[in-house]
Structures are given as structure tokens and as C-alpha cells.
Design brief:
Layout lengths: L2 E7 L2 E6 L2 E5 L4 E5 L4 E3 L6 E7 L2 E2 L2 E2 H12 L7 H14 L6 H34 L6 H22 L2 E2 L7 H8 L1 H11 L7 H16 E2 L9 E7 L8 E11 L2 E11 L6 E7 L2 H8 L3 H24 L6 H43 L3 H20 L12 E6 L3 E6 L10 H13 L3
Antiparallel strand pairs: 1-2, 1-14, 2-15, 3-4, 5-6, 6-11, 7-8, 9-10, 11-12, 12-13, 15-16
Helix pairs in contact: 3-4, 3-6, 3-7, 4-7, 5-7, 6-7, 8-11, 9-10
């Protein structure tokens, strides 16, 4: 995990990221505090890129992919930031020599295996819960329960994936071609992951369909455990103010990139500032809204339960009413309660916005460049400190890298760690900027 943030106003955009990266082995996870997550997307233009979650894509470190793209991009520029982002996605989508067919198939197999493992684990958790509740079952009853749970899981998953978004860059017949091409691969994974479960042919067909949909569509409700977040920020040649585009990127499948545009934020004449956290964002949200997001969820849940149960409690203590009159009264009280609850939520949200979020946004809108960078670093430090003093793994830690991008000065490192001593390696600067010096930049 990681914590990253982008702070934008009309003058510049500040990017800040911690250095923690989690390496997962079979028996243990290790956290290292030396990962690079912010890079120049161009040596010549005011555009940067941040990476969060998985530090590799298809087994290739993101740093290698970014610097390969940067070399290909050279001095080329685009009128808008969105076109830089689009061009980078096209590089990943079409540069198939980076992702040979065997590599794609291996990662696809891993993706299908992980999905079926997830469904299998969910199945056994629910079976265990029911057995614990009911105790010893009669002969044949367990099979009925398993069939019912499988049906329920398939129904839920169908709801998720059938309503999922189609990947932007695929054709209408992509799913059918995918299903035909990888039918045997899906069959093999299904047989392996559900070898101890007796499935009907209809259930097998439904699970195979889900394997296709989960790899050919995108859903905010479910993501691959190996996805990467990519944030591209800065200025195009014709952009007056900065903007930002973020993506969720998962795999290259059958020579097509599985990704989704996660959002675009632009500074305009009317919208003068933005604070956008990525990955572990709870402390930034607390800072911005004055309340911990997890605490707010629990609070909202409790209040909703009170509004739901209170009419039942009132009606149960009323005497002289028939059952039909009680039901009618209870429904009316619930209806009024829902209106009051929605009104309460709106008023609390408005209060948080007016008294917490907007005052901070207004200050950010007027911050000079150096203060913008300091604030970005401080918000990441706050998240890191919270993880350090909490009884959890320090998944946000290490040196904080900070970059500032402005129209006039371009991409500027405010803070940057190196794995080597800069003074002892003068050839690093010479090699890095040789091309710029040759071009007279």
C-alpha cells in the first residue's frame, strides 16, 4: 500500500508520495521503504506521473515502462494533458513486444485462478458459517445448502459483472473471441479450483461466463488484487491551468489493455483548487472533512438502524390499534423517518463542506508554489505518522518524494531520494541531461 496526493491550484500542481512498498511471499509480507513512485513523463515538458498499489505491471517494473515511453516520446508534445495520458495508454495497449503472447497467457491464467480462488473461499466461508449455526446436518441437506450458496454467489457476481463497464479499447466481439480462445484454459482452472465441489453443468457454464466477464469488463466493486493506479498530471502546450487524469490498469489480455479511466480533474477559471488523495486516503479525508471516514460509516449505520427500528418500537407500545392500523402507522413513520434521515445527512454534509473542506480549498487556491509542495508533503507525513503509532503494518513510510509542476518552470523536484550518493556519481547528471545539452535546452 501507499499514500499519494496531488494538490492543484491555478499556478501549479504538487505531487507527493511515500516510499513504502510491500513484497508478498508465500509465508510472509515484507515492507521496504525505498520505492520510487513519482517520475517525469517527459524530460522536456511539464508532465509527471505517479504510480500506486502494484509497483510492477505484467512483471515489469513501472519505472522501466515509464522510462521506455519517455525515450520514445522524446521532445514530442501534445496540446492538452489528456492527450499525453491517452498517448501513454496507447503505448501500453499497442507496444505488444513488451508483453509477448506467452506472458499475457501466464498472467491471464493467474487472473482466472485468483478469481476462482476468491469464489471458492467465499463459498467455504458461508458453508462454515451455516454449519456452525445449524450444527450436524441430515444426509443430503448439506448438498442442498452448497447448491443454494453457489446459486447465491453466482447471482451476486453476475450482478457485479453484467453491470460492469466495457473496457474502452475493445471491440464488440472481444468477449466472444476471448471466450472461444481461452475456453480450455478456463475449463482447466475451474476443474482445479472447484475439484471438491460437485457442480451442475449449468453452474459450470455460469462460472465460465463470469471468468470471461471479470477479465473483459471493469467494475468499481471488484478489482484485480494486482492492479496498479496511474496518475498523469501537468500541462499540455495549450493548457493554461494544470489538470490530472488517473487510471486503474490491470492486465494486457489478448493484445488489449484492461484499464479504466478513474477520473479527470481540471483547474478552471471557476474551480481554483483541488486536493486529490490516492491509495490510503483516510487521514487526508479526516483532515478535509473533520471526521474519520470509518467512524463516519459506523455513525451513519447506527443512525440508520435507529430510524429503522424506532417506528417499530413506537407501534409495539401503542394499544387500541388493529394490526392493519399498526402496519399502516409503522409504514408512515418509516417514510417520515427516511425523509428526516436524508435531510440530516444533507445538512451534515453541507456543514462539513462549508466549515471544513471549502476553507481549506480556498486557502490552497492561493498558495504559492513552495507552500503547495510543503502542504502535499505534510499530508503524506500525517498519514505516515498515523500508521506508525497505530497497531498495524507501516504500509506508509520512508522518505517522501515531492515534485512540483508549473507552466513556466516545468517539472521540478522539491524532495527526491536516491539509492546512491549524488556527489559521488557526477556521471548520473551528465548522462541524464546529455541529450538536453546537445539540443541546447
Amino acid at each position: 500500500m501507499t499514500a499519494e496526493i496531488a494538490l492543484m491550484n491555478k499556478e501549479a500542481i504538487a505531487l507527493a508520495a511515500d516510499s513504502a512498498v510491500t513484497m508478498q511471499t508465500r509465508s510472509v509480507s515484507k515492507i521496504f521503504s525505498s520505492a520510487n513512485k513519482i517520475f517525469m513523463l517527459s524530460k522536456y515538458r511539464p508532465v509527471g506521473i505517479m504510480i500506486y498499489e502494484d509497483a510492477t505491471f505484467m512483471g515489469i517494473p513501472w519505472e522501466i515502462l515509464i522510462k521506455t515511453y519517455r525515450d520514445l516520446l522524446g521532445e514530442k508534445s501534445f496540446p492538452t494533458l489528456e492527450e499525453y495520458a491517452k498517448n501513454f495508454i496507447e503505448f501500453l495497449d499497442k507496444k505488444n513486444s513488451l508483453f509477448p503472447a506467452k506472458l499475457q497467457k501466464d498472467f491471464l491464467k493467474g487472473s482466472i485462478d485468483l478469481y476462482f480462488e476468491f469464489l471458492n473461499e467465499q463459498l467455504f466461508r458461508e458453508i462454515e458459517s451455516i454449519l456452525k449455526e445449524k450444527g450436524i446436518l441430515e444426509e443430503g441437506e448439506e448438498d442442498k445448502i452448497i447448491t443454494g450458496i453457489i446459486t447465491s454467489i453466482i447471482k451476486e457476481q453476475c450482478s457485479i459483472w453484467e453491470n460492469g463497464k466495457q473496457i474502452p479499447n475493445i471491440s464488440d466481439n472481444f468477449e466472444k473471441n476471448f471466450a472461444d480462445k481461452f475456453d480450455k484454459l478456463i475449463d482447466k482452472s475451474l476443474a482445479n479450483k472447484f475439484e471438491n465441489i460437485l457442480l451442475s453443468q449449468e453452474q459450470k457454464n455460469q462460472l465460465k461466463r463470469l471468468a470471461v466477464l471479470s477479465n473483459c469488463r471493469y467494475s468499481n466493486r471488484m478489482r484485480s488484487p494486482t492492479y496498479s493506479g496511474v496518475v498523469i498530471a501537468g500541462f499540455g502546450e495549450k493548457d493554461i491551468f494544470p489538470s490530472l487524469v488517473s487510471y486503474i490498469i490491470e492486465l494486457v489480455i489478448n493484445n488489449r489493455l484492461k484499464y479504466n479511466n478513474f477520473g479527470t480533474t481540471k483547474i478552471t477559471y471557476d474551480s481554483g483548487a483541488a486536493i486529490i488523495p490516492f491509495a490510503q486516503r483516510e487521514m487526508v479525508t479526516t483532515f478535509m472533512e473533520g471526521i474519520d471516514p470509518d467512524y463516519m460509516k459506523i455513525k451513519d449505520s447506527y443512525i440508520s438502524q435507529i430510524f429503522k427500528k424506532y417506528p417499530e418500537m413506537i407501534v409495539s407500545h401503542i394499544k387500541g390499534y388493529s394490526e392493519s392500523d399498526k402496519i399502516e402507522l409503522e409504514n408512515k413513520l418509516k417514510e417520515v423517518g427516511n425523509e428526516l434521515l436524508n435531510d440530516l445527512k444533507k445538512k451534515l454534509s453541507k456543514y462539513r463542506t462549508e466549515h471544513y473542506s471549502m476553507p481549506i480549498i480556498n486557502v490552497v487556491a492561493g498558495l504559492p508554489k513552495d507552500e503547495l509542495a510543503k502542504m502535499a508533503e505534510s499530508l503524506i507525513s500525517l498519514t505516515s505518522f498515523k500508521r506508525r503509532v497505530s497497531p498495524v503494518n507501516e504500509t506508509v513510510s520512508g522518505p517522501i518524494d515531492v515534485a512540483l509542476i508549473s507552466k513556466g518552470d516545468g517539472f521540478i523536484w522539491v524532495k527526491r531520494k536516491h539509492y546512491f550518493t549524488y556527489e559521488m556519481n557526477p556521471q548520473f547528471r551528465d548522462n541524464y541531461y546529455r541529450r538536453c545539452e546537445e539540443n541546447g535546452d
